[in-house]
Amino acid sequence: MDIAKKLTEALGGYINKGRVKSPWVIHYDCGSCNGCDIEVLACLTPVFDLERFGILNIGDPKHADVLLVTGTVNHRNKAVLRNIYDQMPDPKAVIAVGTCACSGGVFQDCYNVVGGVDQIIPVDVYIPGCAAKPEAIIDGVVLALEVVKGKLGLQPLPKTTVFE
Amino acid sequence: MLKFLFALVALALSVPAGGLLAGLDRKLTARLQSRMGPPLLQPFYDVLKLCGKSPCVSNPWLVFCSFVCVTASALALFLFYMQGDLLLLFFVMTISAVFKVAGALSIPSPYSNVGAQRELLQMLAYEPLITLVFVGIASVTGSFMVADVYAVETPLLLQLPFLYLALGYALTIKLGKSPFDISACHHGHQEIVRGVLTEYSGPQLALLELSHWLDTILILGLCALFWHTSFVGMVILLVITYLAEILVDNITARMTWQWMLKNAFGPTLALAVFNILWFYVR
To answer: What is the pLDDT of residues B224-281, one digit of tens each?
Structure first.
């Protein structure tokens, strides 16, 4: 019994290590001006090279661990955002990239705009900026990993979920 | 009995070897694109993480298919290590690919279905080539047994050089590398969602990844048969072949399936048949 318990613990440890070392990202554009989208794509280029951290931009919500959302949520796409979030298996994290995704930005009182991403789905990390810099996005993903570690009970939750 | 144990140990070692090879592949690919690239152990992290994901299965058939897929891949490799029949090995290898497709087809998702159809086209392209390679090996050794290859005194490559090229072609298609990453792409955003892998998630995807590692080792093992006489020659042949694969993967873009079929059935098949005829005439 003792050995079985130890084995399970060891395996759990390895799986947690994998979770932290291999966050696969799916990017959803909720009607952004494409400024933040281009910065997200810039993260994949040789200059920033997200794959150093095992981060892959994967097009499939069923494979993804981290949801990057850019742009304000409106009444037309809130169902799509919800659907993508629901299709992602646990454990998962959501990152709002750019001021629009964090709060609605300059569009927040428009008649067709719901507001930030957190009006629809729970957000783990906010990356403000117009547009958010690639460095900020990479640091935001790394901060999201700290949040995931906190949720898994490996360490206390980070003090802030806003990357400044 | 000793042979059986040896095959089991070799099979067990093939899993980490396949993972390391996949890691090396990603690292080299990154270096070719002047990036740092992920750590060497990245494929293991990916698979471990996938094992810990919550289940998200649209159809129980998917789970069954992913298990059969990895079992068939392991069995094919085991048959290879047992120095068994090449034709039997070929059929078992096909089972693995067929069940991957069957799983993808069991879901009414259009993305997964498109991927599955394309995987079938890829199989259509590489299977005749691999069959011809086995026929070529048999025409030199006189039997389809792997064990009989070792009885030949000169390397097969000297007698079957064009057939080796055809095998390289089939290898690129089987491993889904550019320009033949038609059913599912390993990197970048050039895919209809994730092709044949779309509906596989979490542990099922991890099993398919394992099966891919084993397939890589098996195909490289088949390449190794072409220089069985010396260990050094074998290693040099494998290193050159795999580096060429990675290079081709990086300098080409995905082509259409029509182009793939035209090339596989045209020049490559002709090259393979020519090599076998040439061997007989000589």
So the answer is: 888 888 889 889 999 999 999 889 888 888 888 888 888 888 888 888 888 888 888 8
Q: Residue B18 contacts by C-beta under 8 Å, 6 or more apart in sequence?
A: B210, B212, B213, B214, B216, B217
How close A144 gets to chain B, by Cα (Å)? Answer: 16
Q: How many helices (H) and strands (E) does chain B have?
A: 11, 0
Would you say residue A135 lies in a domain? Answer: yes
Q: CA torsion sign, B81 to B84 to B86 to B88? A: negative
- Min Cα–Cα distance to chain A from B280, Å: 50
pLDDT at A1: 63
Asked if A89 lies within 8 A of B193 by C-beta distance, the reply is no
Range of the domain at B69: 2-281
Closest residue by Cα to residue A116 from A160, A69, A162, A82: A69
User: Mean pLDDT for chain B?
Assistant: 88
Q: Do B30 and A17 touch (CB under 8 A)?
A: no
What domain range is A131 assigned to?
A: 22-151
**pTM higher than 0.80 for the full model?**
yes
Answer yes or no: do B48 and A63 touch at CB < 8 A.
Answer: no
ipTM of the complex: 0.88
Amino acid, res. B126 = Y
Name the residue of chain A whose CA is nearest to B33's CA. A46
Please give the pLDDT value at position B186. 65
Cα atoms in the Cβ-side hemisphere of radius 13 Å centred on B181: 21
d(CA B148, CA B157) in angstroms, rounded, equals 16
Q: Is residue A39 part of a domain?
A: yes
Q: Is residue A58 in some structural domain? A: yes
Closest Cα of chain B to A106: distance in Å? 31
Of A18, A21, A49, the CB nearest to B36: A49
